[in-house]
Amino acid sequence: MPYRIAVAGIGKIARDQHLPCIGKNRNFTLVAGVSRSAKIEGVPNFESLAALKASKLKVDCLALCTPPAVRLAMAREALDHGWHLLIEKPPTPTVGELLAMEAYARKKKRVLYATWHSRYNKSVDMAKAKLRGKHVDFLRVTWKEDVHKWHPGQAWIWEPGGFGVFDPGINALSIVTKILPEPIFVDSATIEVPADAATPIAADIRFKRGDGATADLSAVFDWRQKTGETWEIEVATRDGLKLHLKNGGSILEINGKTAHKAVLREYEDIYAKFARLLKAKKSEVDPSPLQLVSDCFMLGKPKVVAPVG
Question: Which residues are catalytic?
Fold first, then answer.
């Protein structure tokens, strides 16, 4: 019997990815939408989780696609209703909230799946396998795109807790934290914040190894690139291995030669994984990408730049 799933937060990512992938996955049946301002055609719609619960509609799980700032309270409410949870990235504004959400799901004996969609890619899996046991001494992340293309009219991204350029940047960090054989840590950062915003439009980050060994590890995020997207990760190891992930991690080059081109099925794979977790009654929560973002804000030097408008 398919899991009966509701979607809360009917914005761009829900319409572009979650709803189509739920529709294609026979393990799920969409039963409701929850939003104060939008509706999903063909199913009942409610303005709140409380209204959905009061309707007596049978729900097994909830995909939470709202902005991160409101998720902890909504997650607790959904868990109180007995629903399992899938949450869009970034999961929460702070690491503390994510850990609290994880603990509450454990207390309620419900599955919590904090997704990192950029990890679901065979090229990323191959890069992880190639780097296993290696000593990484070079990392360069270049993640640039146009905010107006990917977040049109979304004011929340410029508010405290809205992440700014770290909303796409955390996708890169989710790949980095998956493929590297050991953790890296933020050493320093410069964070460029528009004069009319609370969150950054660009960031230049330097990382360090935990063992203190010399390494050139960096990332540049920028939301001001008007032509196309640059989503690339370059890694080199002490023994001469060079990996280059392109196109958001879908293309892997090894020592200058194309090793794999993946067909992007990130959200399809997310819902396949969610079904497996529900069946096994297991949660999956990895705070490491969010921890790196939090550390960038903690250690970063702010620089005021031109208003975003």
Answer: 89
Range 121-262+294-305 classified under CATH 3.30.360.10: yes
Three-state secondary-structure class, residue 166: helix
CB atoms closer than 10 angstroms to residue 220: 18
> Which residues, other chains included, contact 77 with Cβ-Cβ below 8 Å and sequence gap of 6+?
49, 50
Domain chopping of the chain, boundaries: 3-114, 121-262+294-305
* C-alpha to C-alpha distance for 281 and 60, rounded to whole angstroms: 13
**Shared fold status for 3-114 and 121-262+294-305:** no
> Which pTM value belongs to this model?
0.94
198-249 tens-digit pLDDT: 999 999 999 999 999 999 999 999 999 999 999 999 999 999 999 999 999 9
Q: What is the architecture of the domain spanning 3-114?
A: 3-Layer(aba) Sandwich (3.40)
**E strand spans, the chain:** 3-8, 28-34, 45-46, 61-64, 84-87, 112-114, 136-144, 184-194, 202-209, 216-222, 230-237, 242-246, 251-254, 257-261, 300-305
Alpha-carbon gap, residue 50 to 55, rounded angstroms: 9
Q: Which of 114, 131, 92, 88 is nearest to 233 (CA)?
A: 131
The 10s digit of each residue's pLDDT in 92-113 is 999 999 999 999 999 999 999 9
CA 84, 156, 21: angle at the middle one, nearest 5? 40
